[in-house]
UniProtKB/TrEMBL annotation:
Record Pfam families: CTP_transf_3, Hydrolase_3
Origin species: Streptomyces humidus
Residue segments, region Disordered: 157-176
Protein name: N-acylneuraminate cytidylyltransferase
Family: Belongs to the CMP-NeuNAc synthase family. Belongs to the KdsC family.
PANTHER family, per the entry: HAD SUPERFAMILY MEMBERS CMAS AND KDSC (PTHR21485), N-ACYLNEURAMINATE CYTIDYLYLTRANSFERASE (PTHR21485:SF3)
Pathway listed: Amino-sugar metabolism; N-acetylneuraminate metabolism
Enzyme Commission (EC) number: 2.7.7.43
InterPro entries: CMP-NeuNAc_synthase, Cytidylyl_trans, HAD-like_sf, HAD_sf, KdsC_fam, Nucleotide-diphossugar_trans
Record-level Gene Ontology MF annotations: hydrolase activity, acting on ester bonds; metal ion binding; N-acylneuraminate cytidylyltransferase activity
Tagged with keyword Metal-binding: yes
Length: 405
């Protein structure tokens, strides 16, 4: 964020994030791409060129803690502004007043940023902020091009329909129709003084800031959340910092079955279990180990093949562990590694408690849907087919191919 020095207009981003939600319980803390929704919004606001301050307005201690961890200031919202009927404008006005009272200086432009739009990016935030702060608009809103025909029920019985933005007897081609825009619900900007006078997000001249239609998604129910989690590996891939580097990670912890293997087991006539591993994964693990990163194999599996593979790779191993999260926490304490600097690779639901502990939860491409949704990054390759080698490439970059094997 830019410094709020003399001559720089103060742009305050307010993110309303109350604790109650009927459609999706604890919605604003739900992880998408491994990051809680409120933290995603804070991250993009802080990365904006024009935003000088970021405030999360909430009535919930857990949301407040997540917001502070992400780098936002927190304004605790009174109960009167936290119910189902409370407006976003009321929350923004309250946060604006509280922020100005705390800092003793006025805000020039105030933004309303909705964390339930998970794929909002810093360019959109800068777009609405610039429209007001630099281009003379009174208000601004993110929109996406829209070409659909809108219908509405034409009677109270819900039978029959009437065209809203078209005459149903005449269906012009898209290129012959005026360009319509859909309000995305993601980001708004208002001149702060005008917002106080009008008490609404739209007044005066409103600038339309076009955004990528592929990123337009508002989370209102569990189906929306599932869609967001499925899309996150694709839409987050181009964001700065979406993949870990050596600067982000001090340790790499690997599950075994389904991450280093393809999750299949072969059983011979004597009952011995055999698994298949990928040579490329072995090379990637060797490079990670020789780079100086602490490493561990952590598995609930009691099969001796886990220990045998660990010996082959020269890695410490904890296997036959019932509570992987407790074992991981103890290992981090013993190694003096901060959990937020740990990359953990998993594939199934028993890895989720470990995902919640570390800063870089990573799922392989073949992981369970819920696990991919909770991951901060997802590999392109499945478990047992080079996924660990791919992760080594993220962390080590071009140096991966120059380290001695």
């Amino acid at each position: 964020m830019p410094d709020s020095a003399a001559g720089v207009r103060r742009v305050l981003a307010v993110i309303p994030a109350r604790g109650g939600s009927k459609g999706v319980p604890a919605k604003n803390l739900a992880p998408v791409g491994g990051v809680p929704l409120v933290a995603r919004a804070v991250r993009e606001c802080r990365a904006g060129r024009l935003v000088t301050d970021v405030v999360v307005s909430t009535d919930d201690p857990a949301v407040a803690a997540a917001a502070r961890e992400a780098g936002a200031e927190v304004v605790l919202r009174p109960a009167a502004l936290a119910g189902d009927t409370a407006t976003s404008e009321a929350a923004v006005l309250h946060a604006l007043d509280a922020h100005e009272a705390l800092h003793g200086s006025p805000v020039d432009v105030v933004l309303l940023v909705q964390c339930t739009s998970p794929f909002l990016v810093r360019e959109d935030i800068d777009g609405v902020a610039a429209a007001v702060a630099e281009q003379g608009a009174d208000t601004a809103v993110t929109v996406a091009p829209f070409h659909g025909f809108v219908w509405r029920r034409s009677d109270e019985a819900g039978e029959g329909g009437a065209g809203v933005n078209h005459d149903r007897s005449f269906r012009p081609r898209r290129q012959d129709r005026p360009q319509d825009f859909l309000e995305t619900g993601a980001a708004y900007a208002m001149d702060a003084a005008g917002f106080r006078r009008h008490g609404h997000r739209f007044f005066g001249r409103t600038e339309l800031v076009r955004t990528d239609p592929a990123r337009v998604l508002e989370i209102d129910d569990p189906h929306d959340l599932a869609r967001a989690r499925a899309l996150a590996p694709l839409l987050d891939a181009d964001l700065p910092g979406s993949l870990p580097t050596a600067a982000d990670v001090d340790a790499v912890v690997l599950d075994f079955d389904g991450t280093q293997t393809d999750d299949r087991v072969l059983i011979d006539s004597d009952g011995r279990e055999l698994v298949s591993v990928h040579r490329g994964d072995g090379l990637g693990i060797a490079a990670l180990r020789r780079s100086g990163l602490r490493m561990l194999i952590l598995s609930t599996e009691r099969n001796p093949v886990v220990a045998a593979r660990a010996r082959k790779l020269g890695l410490p191993v904890l296997h036959g562990v019932d509570r992987k999260d407790l074992a991981l926490k103890q290992w981090c304490e013993e190694q003096g590694v901060a959990p937020e600097r740990v990359l953990y690779v998993g594939n199934d639901v028993n890895d989720l408690p470990c995902f919640a502990l570390v800063g870089w939860p990573v799922a392989v491409a073949s992981a369970h849907d819920v696990v991919r949704g909770a991951a901060r990054a997802v590999t392109a390759r499945p478990g047992g087919d080079g996924a660990i080698r791919e992760i080594a490439g993220w962390i080590l970059g071009p140096s991966l191919d120059t380290l001695p094997q």
